[in-house]
Design a protein that fits this description.
This protein has about 325 residues and is an alpha+beta fold. The protein folds into 4 domains: about 80 residues, Arc Repressor Mutant, subunit A (Orthogonal Bundle), CATH 1.10.10; about 55 residues, no CATH class; about 110 residues, no CATH class; about 60 residues. It contains 10 helices and 8 strands. Helix 1 crosses helix 2, helix 1 crosses helix 3 and helix 4 runs antiparallel to helix 5. The radius of gyration is 29 Å and the shape is flat.
Amino acid sequence: MSIQKSQLGRFRKLNEYFRNTLHPLTLDELTEKLIEDLGLDSLTSRTVQADIKYLKDYYDAKFKKIKKGNKTTWLYKEANFSIDDLPIDEGEVTLLKEAVEIISALKAFPITKDLQEVVSKLEQRGNLLLAPVNKIIQFETNELTKGREHLVNIYLAAKEGTVLQITYQKFISDAKREFLIHPYLLKEYRDRWYVVCLIDGKNDITTFALDRIIKIKNSSKLYKPNTYFDPEKYFDNVIGINRKKEDKPVKIKIKVKEKQADEFAIKWTLTEEEEAEVLAHAQLNDKVIRKFARQFNTHPAIIIGRLQHKKLIPYSLGREYFEQVIFE
């Protein structure tokens, strides 16, 4: 379960309160003190109860309740307990090492070295001696690709909120132009890198290809944070890398010949090799088809439909997997 930054702040404060044996607090007092110390607009006691439950479940914290008049106060059962002093889990550090190995395969960002140092410190703190992670993944990257040299500068500018001055030359023009940009997103598309940004003085998002950037340097101009688009959804309905502010999704109808549709189905739903494996089975029944569907990570109806279309199995087999679709 991931922890949000606001939750982590509450956990650390609660950890501080529960360790203070001189001033144990009730649930209401815990809630009020969190609001005061963290400068919150509001907070419910139910949220604090949920936080305490999380400390029990995730950090294995144990509590004792002490009566204070007609109310109950909370403290750690063990006075020396702290969520900051938990033992380091060997399995979690191994997972982190594997994640660092995957990131390092990109060979573009200096963050890999920093992450490796973090892992090393965790190993030392936990007195762990873990086997090195074997290299079992490689991305198709060309370190000589033009524009890759700008990746780190643009990444750091977007991370730290720095305006960049770039000299840019379009592919179809000999003219060179200078722009002040507020970088928000780096995106790779078809082996080329692009920066999605705001041109200073404008209110629309623009995309520049990194391989067309000739020079780049930091600017002292005030950076505008991204309030213009959601990076997670910006390209959801886009084919390509460019879109305008006024662009809206449109429905597209594609007409193909039956032969082309069959070729597409073979490529993306069930390959000829997988089909042959199914047909090689001595007896096809519901149980066998469901087994193959799990093996090929597809739906039983895909297998049944293909074989029925080729008249290799009767239409009576697997009818329960098909549902009627009504087009309005």
